[in-house]
Amino acid sequence: MTLDTVKHAGETPDTEQPWAELGLKQDEYERIRTILGRRPTGAELAMYSVMWSEHCSYKSSKVHLRQFGEKAPENDALLVGIGENAGVVDVGQGYAVTFKVESHNHPSYIEPYQGAATGVGGIVRDILAMGARPVAVMDPLRFGAADHPDTKRVLPGVVAGIGGYGNCLGLPNIGGEVVFDACYQGNPLVNALCVGVMKHEDIHLAKASGTGNKVILYGARTGGDGIGGVSVLASETFDDSKPTKRPAVQVGDPFQEKLLIECTLEIFREDLVDGIQDLGGAGLSCATSELASAGSGGMRVELDRVPLRDATLSPEEILMSESQERMCAIVEPGKVDRFLEICEKWDVIATVIGEVTDGERLEIFWHGEQIVDVPPRTVAHEGPVYERPFARPDWQDALQADDANKLARPETAEELREQVLKVISSPNQASKSWITDQYDRFVQGNTVLAQPEDSGMVRVDEDTNLGVAVATDGNGRYAKLDPYAGAQLALAESYRNVAASGARPLAISNCLNFGSPEDPAVMWQFAEATRGLADGCLELGTPVTGGNVSLYNQTGETAIHPTPVVAVLGVIDDVNRRTPIAFSDEGHLLYLLGDTKEELGGSAWSQVVHDHLGGLPPAVDLGREKLLAEILISASRDGMVDAAHDLSDGGLIQAVAESCLRGGKGARIVTPDDTDPFVFLFSESAGRAVVAVPRSEELRFTDMCGARGLPATRIGVVDGEEIDIQGQFSIPLAELREAHEATIPALLA
Amino acid sequence: MTARVGVITFPGTLDDRDTQRAVRIAGLDPVPLWHRDKDLKQVDAVVLPGGFSYGDYLRAGAISRFSPVMETVIEQAKGGMPVLGICNGFQVLTETHLLPGAMLRNNHLHFICREQKLRVENANTAWTSDYEAGQEISIPLKNIDGRYVADEHTLDELEAEGRVVFRYLGGNPNGSLRDIAGITNAAGNVVGLMPHPEHAVEPLVGTGRTDGLGFFTSLLKKLVNA
C-alpha cells in the first residue's frame, strides 16, 4: 500500500475515500476539501473524522452549552473555565481545585470492566493535565433493572473495573450513585469524576507555544486498541489485510497510570513543561491538534518516532488509537534532558516526537514524507455545529397528567409500615455498601467523609484543615417528567448535599446523558435540561466549570430517561466542622427544615409500590435551597447541629432510616399536626433536610432559623433501638438494617 | 532525639505518603527510600507500605522482592532492624521469606475495603509493645489478595511460638487460615499484616479511630526510650 502523502493527495483528487465509514457526513467531507483546497490524505481524514465526531466536537450540543458561559454567575472563585481539560476553582489559602465528571457509557456496556476502568483513567489524566495531584474519585452509575440477568453481567464488571483501576492508582473513592431503572437496560451510564488539588501557580494549560519547543509523548506505547472509539470506525477500513475486529474499547493499565501520575507531578515540581495535554478520546489526533490550536498554531510531528506496541500499525491508526496512559508535553529545549531523566526514573517511556514551529499549520511526517498539513483550529476548535430541530414530545402532556398524587395510598398503619420497609429495601433505596466496599476510600489518609455520607470530603491542607466536599446527583425520573425542573432538581440536590456536610458550594461540573440528538424529542429534553441547569447555576451563583455530554444513549427508538448528572464542589475552612449524617447521640432533637408538600411525582414510593412514573416532579425553589444551605453551613460552623441529612428520593423516612442505621441509634418521630403521616414520610419535596440538634443548642438553632425565615419543625428525638413513628408503627433497627442491607448482596453477590 | 524510619517507595506503592505521615504523628522522623537505591540512609527501622507494586501483575510482591533496596533490608532485618510490612509490604516480606506463608486472592474474589476488628495476640514485638495481649483494635482493611495461607506445620509452629501477632475478629474477611491477619519472625523485629494501621492515626480522617498509632509509638519506645 502506497503512503497517502499530501503531495499524493494533491495529485489524485478523485480517489474514493471512506468518509462515510469513518462517520462523516457528505457535507462535512466537502467542508474538509474546501478547508484544505484538495482532498484530505488518509491521515488527515482520520484526524478530522475523530475530532469532528459528536463526542469530541459537541456539534449537536454546542449551541445549547453556550448558555453555561452566557448565563455564568459573577464568581471570583473560577480560575479556569469551560474549554480546558477541566475547570479550576479557587478554594482559598493559595489552593486551587480542579474537578470534572465524564461519561464512559458505551464502552462500559460492550466491555464492562475495561470500559469502566478506562473511564477512571481518562478523567484522572484530565485532572493531572491541569497541574493537579488527583485526590479523589467518585462514580455516578446507572444500570438496568436490578433483577435483569444482563445487570448481573454489567454491574459487577463495571464495579470491578472502577475498583481494579482506581484502587491501583491510590485514589480514594468517596461517593457517587448507583441507580437501577429499566430505561438503562441496554445503555448503562458509567460516569466518572475526579478531583485534583494544586497551588494557584501550578495551573497548567493545554497549549503549544514557543517556536522550537519540543513535543514529548510519554507514557504507554501506542497500540491498536480503541481505534475509532470516539467515532464509528472499524480499523479494517484502512487495510483489509490487517487483523480485524480490534476492539474499539481501550484496555487500561493502572500501574502505568500510577507511574505517569507520579512522574508528571515530579515534572511539574521542577517546572519543566510549557503546555500539557493528556491523550484520551481521539488520541494523538486530539492532543496534537488541540495543543497547536490553543497555542501559536504551528507544530511539526515525526509520527514514525511514536513508540508502538504493534509495529504494523499504519500512520492513520497511530493517529486514531486511544491507547491509554499517554500524555503529551511541550518542553523548552534546555529542559528536555531533565524531563527525560525523570521519566527514566519512573520507568516511563518518553520520546521527542516533534516541535513547535513558527507557522500556523500542523504538519505530520511519516519517515520524512508529509502526510498531514492542516490548520489545527479547523480540526480541534472549528468543527461543524448543528442546530438540531427539537420539539416537545407529544406524550409529555399525558405523562404529566398521570398524577402520582392520585395513586392508591396505604389505608392502615400496618400497610404504611409494610410500604416503608418495601421502599427502604428496594434496590434503589437499599444500602450500596456491597458495591462501595470494593473501592478504597482510605488511601491518601485525607478522607473525612465518604459514602454513604451526603458528600465526599477530603482534607486539602493538614495544617489548616482546609477541605473540599463533592456530591453528585441526578434523577432521570424527575427529568423525564420535566427536563427543565429535573436538571434543576439534580443541581439542587447536589448543592444541598454539599451544604448538609457543612461545606460552601462553589461551582459545578456536569455530565449530560441523553438519547439520540437526531430525535427532536430527545433534543428538546436536552435543550430544556441545559436551559434549566444554566438558569439554576445563575441563581445559585455556582458557575459550570466544564463537563461532558453523552448522546446516543438509546437502543432502537427507545432513549434513556434524560439524565443530567450534576457534581457540586464545595469548600470548608475547617474539616473538623464537617457534619455527618449519623444520629449518634441519644437525646438530640430532630428538626425537619423546609416545607413538606404533597409531592409524589417521580418518587421512590411511586416507583416501588406502584411501578409508576407520571405527574410532575417536586417544585423547585432555588431561593429556598440557598437559604437552607446557609443555615446548614452556619449550623455546622457554629456547632449547632450534630448530624444533618438531605431529603431526596425516598423522602423523610429514607433519610431518618439512613441516619439511624449509620449512627446505630433509633428515633422517636412525631408527625406534625397538619400533615398526613403518609405524605410526611414519603413526599419528596425539595429544599429539605433533617438535622439532629443537641438540647443545649436548640434555642440558638431555632432562633437562627426563625430570624432567617426557614421553617424548622421539631419532629422527634434520637432515642432507643427502633424507629417509632408515634401513633403509627415502629421498626426495630435490626429489622430495618436487614431490610436495607440485604437487598444488593442478594441480587448480585 | 528521635529515630529515623525509612518508608520505601516501589513503583506502584500507594500508601507511602500516608505511612510517612503516621510515622511523623508518632514523633518519629520519616525518611523516604527509593526502590532502586540500596542505601538505607542510616535509618533505624523500615516500613514497606501498601499498594500494588509493579501492578502486582505477576504475583503480589513477587517483583519488588528483587528490588535493590530489598537486598539491604533483608540483610539488616536479619541483623535485628525493625521492619513492618503493611498489606503489599506484608506480601513482599513473605516473598523474601523474612516471614513464612503467602497471600492468595480473597476467597470471595472481591476487593474489600472496611473497618476490621483485630485481636492483638502478641504484644512483645518491636511494633506492638504499646498494645496489650488480647486487646481488640479496629483499623481499615483494603485488599484483594489478602488470604493468608501456609502449610499446617508452619501454622502450628507460628501458633506454638506465639508468632501470630493479629487475628481477625467479627468475621474472617478473606478466608485467611486460622483467622491470621499478621505474623512476626522468631526474633520479633519483622512484622507483617494485611490491615492498615497507618490509616488509623488521626481522629479526623479515615475511620475516625486512632487504633493504629500504637504500631508507631511502640517503635518509638523501642528505638528512643529503650
From TrEMBL, chain A:
Its EC number is 6.3.5.3. Residues 83-198, 453-572 form the PurM-like N-terminal domain. Pathway: Purine metabolism; IMP biosynthesis via de novo pathway; 5-amino-1-(5-phospho-D-ribosyl)imidazole from N(2)-formyl-N(1)-(5-phospho-D-ribosyl)glycinamide: step 1/2. It comes from the Bacteria. ATP binds at residues 58, 100, 510, 547. It is an enzyme of class 6 (ligase). Mg(2+) 1 binds at residues 102, 548. Monomer. Part of the FGAM synthase complex composed of 1 PurL, 1 PurQ and 2 PurS subunits. Belongs to the FGAMS family. PANTHER family: PHOSPHORIBOSYLFORMYLGLYCINAMIDINE SYNTHASE SUBUNIT PURL (PTHR43555:SF1). Part of the phosphoribosylformylglycinamidine synthase complex involved in the purines biosynthetic pathway. Catalyzes the ATP-dependent conversion of formylglycinamide ribonucleotide (FGAR) and glutamine to yield formylglycinamidine ribonucleotide (FGAM) and glutamate. The FGAM synthase complex is composed of three subunits. PurQ produces an ammonia molecule by converting glutamine to glutamate. PurL transfers the ammonia molecule to FGAR to form FGAM in an ATP-dependent manner. This is Phosphoribosylformylglycinamidine synthase subunit PurL. It comes from Streptomyces hiroshimensis. The gene is purL.
UniProtKB/TrEMBL annotation, chain B:
It comes from the Bacteria. NCBIfam families: FGAM_synth_I, PRK03619.1. The keyword DNA-binding does not apply. Its main location: cytoplasm. The gene is purQ. InterPro entries: Class_I_gatase-like, PRibForGlyAmidine_synth_PurQ. It catalyses: N(2)-formyl-N(1)-(5-phospho-beta-D-ribosyl)glycinamide + L-glutamine + ATP + H2O = 2-formamido-N(1)-(5-O-phospho-beta-D-ribosyl)acetamidine + L-glutamate + ADP + phosphate + H(+); L-glutamine + H2O = L-glutamate + NH4(+). This is Phosphoribosylformylglycinamidine synthase subunit PurQ. Pfam families: GATase_5.
